[in-house]
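worker-3 :: picked Similar to Drosophila melanogaster CG12338
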Amino acid sequence: NHFIEKLLPVYRRATEEELKLCHGGWKYGSFFTTCLTESRLFLPYATKKFLENGGEVLRQHLNSFFDVPQNFDALLNCTGMGAKELCGDQHLVPIRGQVLKVRAPWVKTAFYGDYDTYVLPGFETVTLGGCRQFDSYNTKWCKYDSMAIRERCFDLLPSLRKAEIVRECVGLRP
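worker-3 :: tokens ->
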């Protein structure tokens, strides 16, 4: 992927040995180095630093971007699905995602497979994913999605079978 090659410090074709780390007889894969940020941990830290350096946070309900006061250097739009109303975009639909967070400290490398299958090591847990369901407003955990995610991730990395499930998360994104 020539686009990604320009963005990442290290991006190359995976070696035969690296391909053998995953089950499934993979013929091609990519190896790359990137940065992973866990928002629930990073955002409180970033907000604290921003405020310590003279930044100001104003939270208010807006009916339109025209309601934004003009005396700001920057505006961060974190409306998510609220952008449908704020921006008047009636074509915006949610994409439902579901993941499992497991305790698997031996997993140090991220893996991406077919069908939205991924294993992402984090600070305290490893994320197993996922699903991508367009135009679904369902924010409830689904045992069938969970079973499918586990099955695909276990097929990709069998050692995950012994991982303790810490929690399951569902979210909607635009």
